[in-house]
Amino acid sequence: MKADPAVQRRLLDLADADAEINRVAHRRRTLPELEQIGAAEREVQTKRDELVVAQTAFNDLDREVKRLETEVDNVRKRETRDRDLMAAGGPAKQQEELEHELQTLARRQAVLEDEQLEVMEQREALETNVTKSREAVSEAEQRLGDIQSRRDEALNELEVAETRRQNERDLITKSLPDDLVALYERVRAQRGIGVGLLQGARCGACRIELDRHALNEVREAAADDVVRCEECGAIMVRENK
């Protein structure tokens, strides 16, 4: 295959564009924000789970407080009724029974109110836990959002860089012969790099030095001959041709 030396040197520009596109792709896959997002998402889920536990405990205790409030209210209503009956007068035996029941109700009310006070204090502590858990969830979600914003910004920058390089690549390939581009693409697909600058006796693609026989063949080739490295198969661009 033959190609003007200046055209062959354009392959180096094509290789530079491809290398930059590869670096952008690698950067996209290895953004630190991606790992940070995973950790932040796990933290958000953990904080949400903790909030559910705290909220459930608070709700359970809140129902217990309401139950006790209902019981205390019922005791007070019963007490009011008994006192009204006593005030209305009646047989001595009934008055005695009502008095006995009022004493029982007073003791029951005292027990319930003590229990109610204790449970209300516990509920207050759990309410504080719920508030703190909500704040922890909000903070974790905020951190996640911040990281996602940084990721999106980085991805946008990479997208711009990739698009610019891809446009440059398209212009270069359009300026090159189809058969030369096809050879470059084939070698690049097989070896990862399709062209390298020959520096002294060293191939710029695989970094291996050519032996004397191969180097002599390269030097004796015409300026427009497309020469390839016998080690890696890459196209070798010669500076002195």
UniProtKB/TrEMBL annotation:
<dbReference type="Pfam" id="PF24481">
    <property type="entry name" value="CT398_CC"/>
</dbReference>
<dbReference type="InterPro" id="IPR056003">
    <property type="entry name" value="CT398_CC_hairpin"/>
</dbReference>
<dbReference type="InterPro" id="IPR003743">
    <property type="entry name" value="Zf-RING_7"/>
</dbReference>
<keyword id="KW-0175">Coiled coil</keyword>
<feature type="coiled-coil region">
    <location>
        <begin position="51"/>
        <end position="171"/>
    </location>
</feature>
<dbReference type="InterPro" id="IPR052376">
    <property type="entry name" value="Oxidative_Scav/Glycosyltrans"/>
</dbReference>
<feature type="domain" description="C4-type zinc ribbon">
    <location>
        <begin position="202"/>
        <end position="236"/>
    </location>
</feature>
<dbReference type="Pfam" id="PF02591">
    <property type="entry name" value="Zn_ribbon_9"/>
</dbReference>
<protein>
    <recommendedName>
        <fullName>C4-type zinc ribbon domain-containing protein</fullName>
    </recommendedName>
</protein>
<feature type="domain" description="CT398-like coiled coil hairpin">
    <location>
        <begin position="14"/>
        <end position="192"/>
    </location>
</feature>
